[in-house]
Amino acid sequence: MSRTKIARAIEAGHASINGKAVTKSGSFVEPGDVVAFDLPGEPLPHQLEPVQMNLVIAYEDDDLLVVLKPRGLATHPAPTLSEPSLVEALLGQNIKLSQSAGTYRPGIVHRLDKETTGLLAVAKNDLVHEKLSRQFAAKSAERRYVAWLEGQIASEKFIIDAPIGRDTLDRQKMTATPKGKPARTHVKKLGTGNLGTLVALRLETGRTHQIRVHCSQIGHGVRGDSKYHPDKGLPLQLHAAYLAFEHPISGAWIETYADPPEDFVESEKVQREDVVQF
User: Fold this and answer.
1) Distances in Å between the alpha carbon of 67 and those of 54, 110, 138, 203, 239?
2) Other C-beta atoms within 10 Å of 132: how many?
3) Is 259 a catalytic residue?
4) What secondary structure letter does DSSP report for 181?
5) Which residue in the list 113, 170, 225, 231 is annotated as catalytic?
6) Helix or strand or coil: residue 37?
7) Cα–Cα distance, 29 to 37 (Å, whole number)
8) In this structure, are residues 148 and 128 in contact, taking their beta carbons and an 8 Å threshold?
9) What is the CA radius of gyration of the chain?
């Protein structure tokens, strides 16, 4: 179970300390306390079925690979997901995947939202998975995105510094809130066009929906974002273009880059050096 699901179960009265019900997931416990947790009913597990799907591999060796995730493909299965995910597409290519992330997320070190395109690292064994995960947690792995934002932005470079937490009115969304976890996004202006302002983005932290929430917070939402900045008929204009990290085994610095997809508006304006160098 995810931490979020456990917290919700506690808030719904499924936990007790020394026989007394608690409904706060942040309740403190002391040595000797007896904690009881009544697991609520779980949906039937998702059955992983390998599927045949064309995937673009940006880098691969015996330990890991970097795959270009297409639009509309979820990174991993979920109880509410009926269609195949990237995990099942990888299994369909007979790629051996690490198991430390759990039964339904083999190989997945980090994730991209379903409608976000771009580069994603996948581990083939548990040792590599652990070492890669540490890099992403420490932010020593480098990720750069490109996006079209609403409106005209004057600043050439700036930082969005706003904590992010769960939206109390809509549990499917995140929001900028003083009660959230620290979140910082570096933004570099690349140009302008009919959609607004083209930018490159670098994450200093990795909160859920961070780019989409931060850009919406400053009044320049990501174009095509159906959750935070609806644009009818326009696909999400957010692409993970650059991914670099230290190889967990060889120690070599691995750099990968992928141009935006065809449905990324005026993609010819995106140049590798502009995205990487900031």
Assistant:
1) 11, 12, 22, 20, 13
2) 23
3) no
4) B
5) 113
6) strand
7) 14
8) no
9) 20
Which position has the token pair 């799907």? Answer: 53
CATH superfamily membership of 141-278: Pseudouridine synthase (3.30.2350.10)
Question: Helix, strand or coil for residue 200?
Answer: strand
Domain with CATH 3.30.2350.10 in the chain: 48-138, 141-278
Rounded Cα gap, residues 74 and 56, in angstroms: 16
- Report which of 272, 196, 200 is spatially closest to residue 234, judged by C-alpha positions: 196
Q: In a structure prediction context, what are the per-residue pLDDT tens digits for the chain, which is 278 residues long?
A: 677 778 888 887 888 898 888 888 888 899 999 998 887 665 545 568 899 999 999 999 999 999 999 999 999 887 667 788 999 999 999 999 998 887 778 999 999 999 999 999 999 999 999 999 999 988 899 999 999 999 999 999 999 999 999 998 888 899 999 999 999 999 999 999 999 999 999 999 889 999 999 999 999 999 999 899 878 789 999 999 999 999 999 999 999 999 999 999 999 999 999 999 88
Q: Give the domain 48-138 fold.
A: Pseudouridine synthase (3.30.2350)
123's enclosing H/E stretch is strand 117-123
As given in the structure block, the two tokens for residue 255 are 């750099």
